[in-house]
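User: I'm new to structure prediction. If I give you an amino acid sequence, what do you actually give back? Let's try with this one:
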Amino acid sequence: MNSKAESGKPAFTDTLLLLVSVIMLLAGIGAYYFYQDLAITPVRVAALIVVTLLASWVAAQSQKGGAFFRFLKEADIERRKVVWPTHQETVQTALMVIIVTIIISLFLAAVDWMIGALVRTLLSGGG
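Assistant: Good question. You get back a string of structure tokens that encode the predicted 3D arrangement of the chain. For your 127 residues, that looks like this:
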């Protein structure tokens, strides 16, 4: 069966919820700048955060919004599984990258010099 029919919410409702959340977010941003001279910055920032949270909640009520927030939750779970390198491993890896870069650049400079000498020899007629 179609996933839209299984969810119980028509596509129009999902679209309307997403549209309302975008309008709320844009209105919050507009209000942040409109009241720039009338309200102190911490109050405006707090209000913008509240409007953003409300708009996110409204968006999460739609099928696509819910899927997006489930994706974010799963991504956070995967992020926690990452084993970050220690300081010593990071320094050793960085040094190896620098050393290999220097060695390869010297090798490529030598190859360039040899090919340039070969081309100069061929163009000068061998003498």
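You can read the tokens as a compact description of the fold. Here is one thing that stands out. The chain has a mean pLDDT of 88.
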